[in-house]
Amino acid sequence: MNSNFLRMKKIYHLKTCSTCAKILKEVKPGKEVELQDIKTEKITPAQLDEMAKLSGSYESLFSRKSLKYRSLGLADKKLTEKDYRKLILEEYTFLRRPVGIVGNEIFIGNAKVATEGLKNKLKK
Q1: Are β-strands 99-102 and 9-13 bridged in parallel, bridged antiparallel, or unpaired?
Q2: Mean pLDDT across the stretch 80-102?
Q3: Is 123 exposed, middle or buried (0-12, 13-18, 19+ CB in 10 A)?
């Protein structure tokens, strides 16, 4: 891994999501943290691949809470890693958010453990 990556501090979020806004307010990202609103600045395949490498799978990044999950009938299908990747790239609401990356650590979603982990890591 290159040294720029290890110094990376980034949060992928959705500006219109009240949960993301609440978490951003709580973790207080400084000026050194890059914020990417995934609605206005789409996730690139390279960014998603990097997230999956850090998290261990595309499925771990996939949100089953997205309204489109049920409307597309995905709950009734057996999805593969390839499917998860394709769906997240096609529809930003399929990304579990926020996703925070600090160095080589990733914090996914709005669970208290993820929020606390991101907050503590950003303090360092």
Answers
A1: antiparallel
A2: 97
A3: exposed
Q: Which domains does the chain have, with CATH numbers?
A: 3-123 (3.40.30.10)
In sequence order, the 6+-apart residues with CB closer than 8 A to the CB of 104 are 1, 5, 6, 54
| Radius of gyration for the alpha carbons in the chain, expressed in angstroms and rounded | 14
DSSP string spanning 55-77? Answer: HS-SGGGB-TTSHHHHHTTGGGS
Closest CA to 84 of 102, 57, 65, 109: 57
Report the predicted TM-score, pTM, of the whole model to 2 decimal places: 0.91
Q: Is pLDDT larger for residue 60 or for residue 76?
A: 60
Mean pLDDT of the chain: 92
Supply the pLDDT for residue 6: 57
Nearest to 110 by CA among 10, 9, 14: 14
